[in-house]
Amino acid sequence: MEIGIHEAVFEVFPDFTRGVVVGRNIDNKSKIRELEEELRLLEERTRTDQALEKYKEHPNLSSWMKAFRAFDINPNSCPPSIVNLVKRIRKGATIPYINTVVSLINRTSLKYLVPCGGDDLDSVSGNLILCYAEGNETYRPLGKPDDLENPKPGEIIYKDSSDGNVLCRAWCWRNSDTTKITEDTAFVALNVDGLPPVTAEMTRDMTEDLAGKLEAFCKAEVEVHILDARNPSFTLR
């Protein structure tokens, strides 16, 4: 399996960096008290941080709002995942501990204020590619597996090359039900996305941090890959 980013994405976003953590043989059934406590602390920080009072203007978040507009997606109606997460918490929501891997994704997003997502690789049959949609790809929304949608032509999507199944719409807006991470998931790829002012070095550090937590909390065998314009893909070992 190859995981990569189409060159056309880098033509518009040359400084984009994606860190990928691949985790094998993970144990996702146990609830980790230390992780849940950290999540609650990060939620409280998000609620009280003055820099997030006008969260859409925070540099880390505004860069994603701008990026969405660049491929004709309204970031107010289809917000980047990190923007939506911060918005929910600022309005008083508590993020549920769905399972440890999902909680690690939320923890990484809140700690560093970047989009972070992931997929169950046992539900993938081809290569994974971040690319521009043609519009004939298929998407099943998270929590609505019987619904079928098509992305907009020109929308940045993350898809399975073998069948056109969309794993995530609008870059980092909404994940698919097809590759959702459950407590039975054992093989994952987790993505940490960085746009300026987040640098490639910062993205690598965040990704290494996530990999370490996945290894410690889920007993995973992990590998880390950094994708950018010079290294747009890798093949799973």
Give structural notes:
With 237 residues, the protein is α+β, with helices and mostly antiparallel strands. The protein has one domain (2-229): Phenylalanyl-tRNA Synthetase, Chain B, domain 3 (3-Layer(bba) Sandwich). It contains six helices and ten strands; from the N terminus they run βαβααααββββββαββ. Helix 2 packs parallel to helix 5 and helix 5 (100-112) runs antiparallel to helix 6 (200-218). The protein starts with a strand and ends with a strand. The relative contact order is 0.26.
Order of strands, main sheet, comes to 7-6-5-4-1-10
Number of self-contained structural domains: 1
- Count of helical stretches: 6
Biggest beta-sheet profile? 6 strands, mixed
CATH architecture: 3-Layer(bba) Sandwich
Overall mean pLDDT score?
97
* Strand segment count: 10
Within the CATH hierarchy, at the fold level, what is the topology? Phenylalanyl-tRNA Synthetase, Chain B, domain 3
Radius of gyration: 17 Å
Terminal CA distance reads: 9 Å
Task: Describe how the helices and strands are arranged.
Elements: E1 2-5, H1 7-12, E2 17-24, H2 33-48, H3 59-70, H4 81-90, H5 100-112, E3 116-120, E4 128-132, E5 156-160, E6 166-169, E7 174-175, E8 187-194, H6 200-218, E9 221-227, E10 233-235
Parallel strand pairs: 1-4
Antiparallel strand pairs: 1-10, 2-8, 2-9, 3-8, 4-5, 5-6, 6-7
